[in-house]
Design brief:
Length: 86
């Protein structure tokens, strides 16, 4: 099984577009999709949930990085969002 890890900002339209674009499509195979919110608080996950259709959300596991963007950037060498690791 493949894993797709995406770091995102809840208020970033490009981040939400990436989630839509990388939701499964017929024939795409098994893939674990993890979206890591690196800004705000766990409540900001609700912002993401409110802006994406259920068929997209159901493909993703939404996580929150309590150490925020600064720590995620240090650990994963993030220089922009959304940042994708496949």
């Amino acid at each position: 099984m493949e894993t797709l890890l995406v770091f995102l900002d809840a208020d970033c339209p490009s981040c939400l577009d990436m989630m839509k674009e990388n939701a499964s499509s017929p024939g795409s195979g098994d893939c674990l999709r993890l979206a890591v919110l690196v800004n705000g608080s766990p409540m900001h996950i609700d912002n993401i949930s409110a802006r994406l259709p259920e068929e997209v959300l159901s493909e993703w596991t939404l996580l929150w990085c309590p150490d925020g963007m600064k720590e995620a950037a240090r650990l994963y060498d993030l220089s922009y969002l959304p940042f994708r690791i496949a």
